[in-house]
Design goal:
By secondary structure, the protein is mainly α. The chain contains 16 helices and 10 strands. The strands form 5 sheets. It has a two-stranded parallel ribbon with strand order 1-6. The chain starts with a helix and ends with a helix.
């Protein structure tokens, strides 16, 4: 089944009758998605932000996230160049002789990023970030938690282990990942004096319908979150207006599956990503929703502390709603 959806573009797949039927079945069943959505580039931005935020500011809620969101576009703009830069300094273990030069390079990257920004934005960024970068350079500030050279995230074991511990009374099925299997077996997690063994790896996903269903949903979510990460709000609106009726229904079903999963248990949905992606998720889920088996369209949403809080702006959304319901 998964092969079928990998053959076409995501947009075309949204109008596939079989995919729509599967999403409808998941939506109407007592089935919920439990996922990790991790942006590795954002992890780097968050780590740099952690070093820039002093102890006093760290106690202010959101200070680190704010800085991470400001640094993220610099990293995302030229990922290959950033990778070469970090590799040059053996990040995250920048040695003492290079640390001042490391922060100097960050200042240059920052200046290049904001040189064409509006004056007010540039002034704000200068006050919030540049002063911190200069301070770190002058203090020759070292990274607080050194790790192995060149390794940002050694493995993804924690993303497998956390559901085993958080949902300890559930039994978990995983697609076979040989490296993760070895690490889970060697880690020997213990909960309430008992070894954690509430999981199983399926050797051949073709033999397990549950894994096949997960594969399809993972494919949908992978496209969905990648799209949100790389799209601005204007393009999102244009995208919404371009969809045909079948595509709207499929996307609405996907959004509702995410919504009902979050409402069932917020721990089902875990994300480490930028403000842009978080805001786009709230935006698109605000536009596409299902209610009483009919499509209802509302606009805008705020994403705060991991909770989607929706509010309507009929003056803005009325013409969009009319167009979507008419098409």
């Amino acid at each position: 089944m998964m092969k079928k959806y990998l053959m076409g573009t995501a947009i075309l797949c949204l109008q596939d009758r079989n995919l729509m039927a599967l999403l409808k079945w998941v939506y109407e069943s007592e089935i919920y998605v439990h996922y990790w959505n991790v942006d590795m580039l954002y992890i780097i931005a968050d780590e740099i932000a952690q070093e820039l935020v002093d102890d006093e500011a760290a106690s202010v809620q959101g200070a680190r996230m704010l800085l991470g969101d400001m640094l993220y576009p610099i990293i995302k703009k030229q990922p290959k160049r950033m990778a070469a830069f970090l590799h040059q300094y053996t990040y995250p273990n920048v040695n003492e002789e290079q640390i001042q030069d490391f922060w100097e390079r960050w200042i240059l990257l920052f200046d290049e990023h904001v040189k064409h920004a509006p004056s007010l934005t540039k002034w704000f960024f200068d006050k919030v970030i540049r002063e911190k970068l200069v301070e770190s350079k002058n203090l020759r500030k070292q990274f607080s938690a050194p790790r192995e050279d060149y390794i940002i995230l050694e493995h993804f074991l924690s993303y497998y282990a956390s559901p085993l511990l958080i949902f300890s009374k559930s039994f978990h099925l995983f697609d076979t990942e040989s490296e993760i299997m070895k690490r889970l077996e060697s880690s020997q997690f213990v909960l309430e004096n008992k070894a954690v063994q509430n999981y199983k790896f399926i050797e051949d996903s073709k033999l397990d319908l549950r894994i096949q269903i997960c594969d399809v949903l993972v494919g949908c979510l992978s496209w969905f979150f990648t799209f949100l990460k790389n799209t601005n709000e204007a393009a999102l609106l244009s995208f919404a207006l371009s969809l045909n009726k079948k595509q709207k229904i499929s996307l609405s079903l996907l959004c509702e599956i995410l919504r009902k999963s979050f409402e069932k248990n917020p721990a089902f949905t875990s994300s480490i990503n930028s403000a842009t992606e978080r805001e786009n998720l709230a935006y698109i889920m605000g536009i596409f929703s299902l209610k009483d088996s009919e499509e209802q369209f509302v606009h805008d949403a705020s994403f705060k502390d991991g909770v989607l809080r929706f509010y309507q702006r009929e003056d803005f959304i009325a013409p969009i709603k009319e167009f979507l319901q008419r098409s």
